[in-house]
Amino acid sequence: MPSCDAIVIGGGTNGLACAFRLQKSGRRVIVIESHSEVGGAATARSGKISLPLAHLVNKLDQRVEAKMNLSVHGLRWLNANMPTTVLSHTGNHLTLSGAAGSALSGDVSADEQAAWNELRGRLMRFASLLAPFKEMPPPRLAKNGNNNWLKLAQTGLKLRMMGRREMREFMRLLLINVYDVLEDELTHPLLKGVLAFDATLGSWLGPRSPNSLILLLDRLAGQVSGQQGTLALPAGGMTSVASAMAASARAAGVEIRTDASVSHVLVENDKAIGVTLAGGEEIRAPIIASAISPKTTFLSLVGHEFLDTGFTNRIRHQKSRGAAAKLHLRLKAEPNFKGADLKSRLVIAPSSEAVELAYNPVKYGEVPETPVMEMLIPSAFEDGEQTLSAIVQYAPYDPVIGKDKARKAMLANTLAQLERHAPGIGKLITGAELLMPYDIEDRYGLVGGNWHHGELSVEQMLFLRPVPGFARYATPIQNLWLASAGCHPGGGISGAAGWNAAEAIMGANP
């Protein structure tokens, strides 16, 4: 019976970050990954077209990038500050260049540019206040909360130094919807459309939903190579991020076992002592870190017999609804989006109202007629097969017309949107694959098809994530820890949750 110092369940970016950090602390670590490749959403799983679920980086944890020496292990950026082109069916596109769209080009008035500069500056300042929280355990609202009081005090001081007016504005915006802010501050429909889209990307929220602005702040708080509010494309695509992390972990001494599935966590006397693999093999360790969904961890791998009823119910009721579909197209030639620069992120979101209208049907299990989407043309950046990768919103997880019919309808409506903005693209398509939220769940193990292993929303953030009372990576089962995006600070190709979890484990086990 093999043994080690720590077992990490799941070889996604959080699992790899957690394993590396624990290994560097002097422990012998084994990563157990059920698929043939590590990397989670950053890898292409078996399908008609070989493209990963994620296609851009906007919040790679700086500790992970630096400490894992990812550049040494092959990670380099084709574009570390990619512009966004918001498409118009008339060809009158809007381009946002620089960090978080610091410069606008297109049919934008001087007054609109000034209004955007003011709003962007405010949002970036407020987002920078949230950024430090990503690199620490969520604060505990208790007298003896064992909080990082120095970092909290520094954040509080920054807020205080902004002045009373800015502090009030920060508190107001935290819990407001993004639609109202955009209506108050801006007039350009494409600018409002892309901001509404970015605020709700990957969430179960529309622009008018309460608390939707905080998700835009969370997005703007992300960094790539130390620069806030940027979008980056790695050379070789997203799989190169996973490859660099895996190479770094192996170089540190981490053992990575692929095609190995954990069937359950071994529990004795309320303590996790190891795992049993699907083939019956047992591996023992005094530390078990699960970098997969909290729901899967507790309800499938641990089992309710080892958990009290209250905790089990809280985990069952953790919201994990996915509303984004992933489209992969194989093309025989480069598409023409009415002159748009293909070396940019392409967004179809005509207005904030259009984003809201795309969200409304999914609440009732229906497919939107005019979905909104984010696209990337990988072959525009590197030589290779002509492909298009798109994240399409919104898509129902439990469609009333059935899964096959819903997938077919969603594909038809998405292709119609593409045809509207790139006439003739339909004739260029030689292969198409659309992953609905339920397909994403089946292929990537993301419960509900939600990217974050649990919705990222105000009621499931910070000390409420994944559930109240267990937000600091520890669990009711001694020696069992959580290290996935289902924990603070959530998902994205980041590694932050896994790194934070490793720090918490090391603090409890010096």
Write the SSE topology:
Elements: E1 6-9, H1 13-24, E2 29-32, H2 62-67, E3 77-79, E4 84-86, E5 94-97, E6 103-105, H3 110-130, H4 149-161, H5 164-174, H6 178-185, H7 189-200, H8 213-220, E7 223-224, E8 227-228, E9 233-234, H9 239-252, E10 255-257, E11 262-268, E12 271-277, E13 282-284, E14 288-290, H10 294-302, H11 309-316, E15 324-331, E16 345-348, H12 352-359, E17 372-376, E18 387-393, H13 403-421, H14 425-428, E19 429-435, H15 437-444, E20 480-482, H16 496-508
Parallel strand pairs: 1-2, 1-14, 2-10, 4-16, 14-20
Antiparallel strand pairs: 3-9, 4-5, 5-6, 7-8, 11-12, 12-13, 15-18, 15-19, 16-17, 17-18
Q: How would you describe this protein?
A:
By secondary structure, the protein is of the alpha/beta class. The protein has 2 domains: 6-47 and 235-318 and 453-508, FAD/NAD(P)-binding domain, CATH 3.50.50; 81-231 and 324-396 and 400-435, Polyamine Oxidase, Chain A, domain 2, CATH 3.90.660. It is built from 16 helices and 20 strands. It has an 8-stranded mixed beta sheet, with helices on both faces. Strand 12 and strand 13 (282-284) form a beta hairpin. The radius of gyration is 22 Å and the shape is globular. The two termini are 26 Å apart. The model has no long low-confidence stretch (mean pLDDT 92).
Tally the helices: 16
Dominant shape: globular
Described by strand count, sense and barrel closure, the largest sheet is: 8 strands, mixed
pLDDT < 50 runs, ≥5 residues: none
Instruction: Kindly identify the CATH topology of the largest domain.
Output: Polyamine Oxidase, Chain A, domain 2
CATH architecture of the largest domain: Alpha-Beta Complex
Overall number of strands? 20
Structural class based on helices, strands and sheet pairing: alpha/beta
Range of strand content: 15-25%
Computed Rg: 22 Å
Q: CATH class of the largest domain, please?
A: Alpha Beta
- Secondary structure: helix percent: 25-40%
Q: Can you give the mean pLDDT?
A: 92
| Lateral arrangement of strands in the main beta sheet | 6-5-4-16-17-18-15-19
